[in-house]
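User: Hi! Is it possible to get a structure for several chains at once, not just one? Here's what I have:
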Amino acid sequence: MAHLIELRGVFKIYGEGLESEVRALDGVSLTVDPGEFVAIVGQSGSGKSTMMNVLGCLDIPTRGDYFLDGTDVRELTDKELSHIRNKQIGFIFQQYNLIQSLTVLENVELPLIYQGINADDRYDLAMEALERVGLAGRVKHKPTEMSGGQQQRVAIARAIATKPPIIMADEPTGALDSRTGHEVLQFLQQLNKEGSTVILITHDNGIAATARRCVRLQDGKIVEDRQQEVDWL
Amino acid sequence: MNIRQAIKMAWKSILGKKGRSMLTMLGIIIGIGAVMTIVSAMNGYKEKTMEQYKAMGSDQLQVSIYSWMYDEDGNSLAPDYFPDLYDYCVGLEGVVGVTPNSRSWDLTVSYGTKNSSNMQDYQVDEKGNVVGDMPPNVYLVSDQYSMCRNLTIARGRDLSVLDTRNYNQVCVLGARAAKTFFGSADPVGKTMQVNGCKFDVVGVYASRIEGEDYQSVRVDNFIILPYTARRVLGGEQPTDFIVKCSNSDVMMEVKSKIEGFLKGLVDRNTGDAYVDMENSWQQYEAEQMGMISLVLGGIAAISLLVGGIGIMNIMLVTVTERTREIGIRRAIGAQRSSIVTQFLMEAAMLCGIGGILGIGLGTAGSVIAGRLMFQMTIYPAVWITVCAFSLSVALGIIFGIYPAVKAANLQPVEALRAE
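Assistant: Yes, the chains can be modeled jointly so their relative placement is included. Here is the combined structure:
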C-alpha cells in the first residue's frame, strides 16, 4: 500500500550557516499510512510544531522530500498547496483559530467557500458537520459568545466540513479543561475509527496514549516510533 | 472564491467598523464632491451658453467688407455691396440665407412711454426671476435674417425682399423686445419710433429659447429693420454680413467660394474683405471656461489623491490588524488570489460607497454653484456622474492593490503566529 505521508530526510533550518542556526527538523524520515492515528510527542522546542507546519503544507522543508499521497510537495505552487490544505487536510489548533467577526456557521462554511461550493450545498455540509459536534443549535452565535470547549468543537466542525482524509490537531486540548479535552480526544478517536488519518501533536504523554502509534521528537530528531496500547476513551 | 462572496465579505467588514469606514470614506466623499461640483458647474455653464449660440445659429460665416474711400468731409463713399453678395449667395449651393448683421448702437427705439434710452439692464430678484428692461439690440438686416438666425414668425409677417428694395419703414420684433414694449398686447400694426422716424411693426418672432433666466431672455431681445432703412436713418452702409450654411460640413467650401467672389467684387486698393467662421470668439470664450474648469478640477483632484492615500493607509492598518485572520484563511485553503480579491473588494467598495455619497454632495454643490456663479440651475450631466463613480471605484482599486498584495504575501505560518 502506498504511504499517505512520506518524509525522507527532512530538514527545516532557520538561519542556516549563521552561528544562531536552529535545526527545527534535523533529518526526519517518517511514513504514515491511511487510517493511522499518530501522536507526535515532544517537549517544547523539540520541533513538533515545525513538523505539523511541514506536514500541513503550511511550511516548506529546507531540504529533504515530502510526498503527500504520492505528490512531491516541494514541487507544488502556492496555489496547489492552498488546494491541498483546503481539500486534504483539516486543521485543529490549540487556539481554535476561529475568525471572531464571523458567526459559527460562517466559520464552518469558510473552507467550503474556498472550494467554490454553492450556497445551498455549503449550508448542508456545514450543518452536517455542526450536528456531528453537537452545535447545530448555535450556528448564529459569534465565537466570543461561546466557551472554549464549544469553540474547539466549532473548529473541529470546520476541519471536518470538507471531509478531508487527514486531520491534523496541534495541541487541541491545550487550552481546555480536562473534561472538555477528553471530549475532543474522544472525537478524534471516533473520526479515526471512521477512516480518517489523524495526526495529533502534543507534549503530554497521557494524551499521546490515545493514539495507536507514538512518534517522539527531540531536538528535531525522531527518537522513538512505536505502536502502543490504545487508551480508548 | 467568487465575486459575490467577496462582496459579502467586504460588506460585512465595512459594516463591522462603521465609524472607521465613515471617516475613511470622508476623503473620497469630499474629493469626489469637489471635483464634481467644479466640473459639472463649468460644464453646465458651457453647455447652456453653447445652447444659446446654437439658438442663434452656429453654422454661419461672418463676412466683412471694408472700404476706406471718403469724401472731403469724411463721409464714407463705400458702395452698397450687399445686393451683389445677396445675388451671389442665392445661387450658391449650401447657403441657406444671407443678411447684413450690423448691430446699431446709434438707434433709439421708442413706443409710447417706453424708450430704449431709458432702459438700463435686467435685474435678477431674490427669487431668481428676471425683472426690468434692457435696451433691445437693433439690427439692420435683409429678408433672410430669420433664416440665418433660426427665427420663426409667431404673429404678422416676416421682412420681405420688397421691404428692403422699396425702403419700407417696417420692423419685426423678437419675442422679448415685443414684451418689453407692448407687454401682452399685439404689436402688429402698431407704429414705433426709431430715432424719431416711424416704423410699422409687421411681425413678431417666436421665442427661440426656453427659460426665464438672465442669459436666456437676452437672446430674443432684439428688433430688426430692413438694412436699407439707413437711407432715412442716416449712417454708413453695412460692413458686416452673415451667411448661413445648410450645415457645418459645407462651411469651408462656401467660405472659399465667397472669398473668391469677394476678390472680384472689392478693389484691394480701396478696401478689403474677410470671411470668418462666426461665433469663433464665443467658442474661444467657452474654451477659456474649459481651461479654468480644468485647472480648478485639477486642484480638486489633488484632494481625491489625498483621499485615496487615506484609503491605502487604513487598508494597511486593516491588513496588520487582521494578520491572524489572513493566516487562518490561508491555512484552511484560501489562495493568494482570494486574499487579494477580498481586500481589493473591500477597498473598492469603501471608495464606491464614498463615491456615491460624494456624487450626492457634488450634485448639491453644482446646483448651489450654478445659482451663485451663473444664476442657472445646473444638474450634473449623466456622464459626469458615471465618471465620478467609476473614478472612485478605480481609486479604491489603485490604492487597495498595495495593501491587498501585502496581505496575500504573508507567510501562512507567520500570519498564524500573529496576535
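The first strand of chain B starts at residue 60 and ends at 67. The CA atoms of residues 308 and 398 of chain B lie 8 Å apart.

User: Great, thank you!
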